[in-house]
Design a protein that fits this description.
Distance between the termini: 192 Å
Oligomer: single chain
Helix content: 55-70%
Number of strands: 5
Shape: rod-shaped
Structural class: alpha+beta
Order of helices and strands: HHEEHHEHEHEH
């Protein structure tokens, strides 16, 4: 009986010991698993905290970028407005420039037409003035028309002896041709203008080139009056000395050009237009 009782007891004790041993292993395993899970939890918490920190940082960056984007948008709109205004002003300026160019072109065209018309009128006037002269007579008379004023230029060699104001005999042929022009248009004013070079004059009773130029002009005026019947009321004698040169005084050829007598015929406007339209009577 005692064996029978002890046997179950031993069996039970063994079972309890075995059960106790399993529980410790399980507990250790559970403890290890719990510890591992604790570490993972802690790691997860750290990662969660870091993620939240990153989210907060990203949200801050996003807000900053949105603000920056809004600022850039306003700057763009401002620049766009400035650009639109500049383009508009540019278009206005370009349009104004085009108008100015067109206006300039019209003005240039007008000048060209006026120049052509002026040249044509001058040619007509010259032809009418010299119509009473033959081709041979025209060779000795240089006639130019500038702005409606007629300039008849005569070399002093044709009129006077060197350093003198007395008209030579050969000069009368030349003055005869000039007198024809003057007498063809009896209402025109006539200015006879003497000019010299810059070489000093050394003649008795002639102080300087002013005197010489004025005396030469006076000689021509008196010849036109006394020998060719030009009304003295139409005549004016003037001396310009050496102070209106048309060439250099540094060369003999230039000085020869500057020694000249100009007969300036000045019609009034109505006379000028009549002269364009009509030929001389004789």
């Amino acid at each position: 009986m005692r064996k029978i009782v002890l046997y179950p007891t031993l069996t039970l004790m063994s079972a309890l010991v075995l059960t106790s041993c399993v529980s410790k292993k399980q507990h250790a395993a559970l403890q290890s698993e719990y510890s591992e899970m604790g570490k993972k939890y802690h790691q997860t918490q750290l990662e969660l905290t870091e993620a939240r920190t990153r989210i907060t940082s990203l949200e801050s960056l996003l807000a900053a970028e949105r603000a920056n984007n809004e600022s850039l948008k306003k700057q763009f709109e401002s620049l766009q407005g400035v650009l639109d205004k500049s383009i508009s002003q540019g278009n206005v300026n370009i349009s104004k420039l085009v108008d100015e160019i067109n206006s300039s072109n019209k003005y240039i065209k007008h000048l060209v037409e006026a120049k052509s018309k002026s040249d044509s009128l001058n040619m007509i006037l010259t032809n009418n003035l010299t119509r009473s002269l033959s081709q041979d007579e025209l060779k000795d008379v240089d006639i130019k028309v500038i702005k409606g004023v007629v300039y008849v230029s005569l070399d002093d060699n044709m009129l006077y002896k060197s350093g003198s104001y007395e008209i030579s005999q050969t000069a009368e042929k030349t003055l005869t041709k000039v007198a024809k022009i003057i007498n063809d248009y009896k209402d025109f004013e006539v200015l006879v203008e003497g000019n010299t070079d810059n070489q000093p004059i050394t003649r008795e009773n002639i102080r300087n080139n002013w005197d010489l130029s004025a005396l030469r002009a006076s000689s021509v005026v008196q010849a036109l009056q006394n020998k060719f019947g030009v009304d003295p009321k139409r005549l004016t004698a003037a001396g310009r000395g050496q102070f209106s040169p048309i060439a250099t005084n540094d060369t003999p050829a230039g000085r020869a050009k500057n020694r000249r007598t100009q007969i300036i015929i000045t019609p009034k406007l109505d006379q000028f237009m009549e002269l364009i339209d009509q030929a001389p009577k004789n």
